[in-house]
């Protein structure tokens, strides 16, 4: 579910099947996201030695392909088979398919893939469907290897062109995101907990400022 541009819409019914919802969403166009790496991930991972990474809600693979190009071995997880097909094709075109393992999985229903990772990345792991942070983020933290990092980036506010309420409860504060992870301070060091701002272009071609909420924690 990563990406730079979210097309906001009315929340679907509570009993919507998430896999069907996302396959249909991806099926509406040849590409949904920009294909570029998310900037906070590039900043954080670019300063680390390449290792193993878990990319949650990898979408069409912009982050996973960038990480693989930097030398990381990436497990890319998404609920949408359509998104993963696109990722696999793009990874082959980029020459990094051997460093990416694509996994179709509903982490809420089926849990996380086995293994520990040097970097676990949840970039805009937000959804119009119910996706409780407190059920997703603690197991994401458990998947981090000793000395590794968990990076969570969420939309901190709706885009200025969306018409949505800036106080919409879906936009958690950095402190609320950290609380949902619930890291034991004896075992975790919080390296970053705050807002990052970037400029993006809206559908009408006008630039606007986007706010991302960033939590970066290192397992001791």
From TrEMBL:
Record GO terms (molecular function): methyltransferase activity
Segments for region (Disordered): 1-21
Single GO biological process annotation from the record: methylation
UniProt-listed Pfam families: Methyltransf_25 (PF13649)
Annotated InterPro entries: Methyltransf_25, SAM-dependent_MTases_sf
All residue ranges annotated as the Methyltransferase domain in the record: 54-148
CDD domains reported for this sequence: AdoMet_MTases
Keywords: Methyltransferase, S-adenosyl-L-methionine, Transferase
Name of the protein: Methyltransferase domain-containing protein
Organism of this sequence: Micromonospora humi
């Amino acid at each position: 579910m990563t990406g730079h541009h979210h097309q906001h819409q009315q929340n679907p019914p509570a009993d919507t099947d998430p896999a069907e919802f996302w396959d249909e969403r991806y099926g509406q166009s040849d590409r949904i996201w920009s294909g570029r790496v998310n900037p906070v991930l590039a900043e954080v991972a670019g300063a680390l030695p390449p290792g193993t990474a878990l990319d949650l809600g990898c979408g069409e693979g912009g982050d996973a392909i960038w990480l693989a190009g930097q030398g990381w071995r990436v497990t890319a997880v998404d609920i949408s088979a359509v998104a993963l097909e696109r990722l696999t094709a793009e990874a082959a075109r980029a020459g990094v398919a051997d460093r990416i393992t694509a996994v179709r999985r509903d982490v809420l229903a089926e849990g996380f893939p086995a293994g520990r990772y040097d970097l676990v990345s949840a970039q805009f792991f937000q959804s119009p469907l119910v996706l409780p942070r407190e059920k997703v983020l603690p197991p994401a933290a458990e998947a981090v290897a000793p000395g590794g990092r968990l990076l969570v980036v969420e939309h901190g506010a709706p885009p200025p062109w969306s018409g949505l309420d800036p106080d919409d409860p879906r936009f958690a504060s950095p402190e609320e995101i950290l609380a949902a992870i619930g890291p034991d301070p004896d075992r975790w060091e919080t390296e970053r907990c705050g807002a990052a701002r970037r400029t993006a272009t809206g559908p009408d071609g006008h630039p606007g400022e986007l706010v991302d909420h960033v939590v970066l924690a290192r397992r001791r």
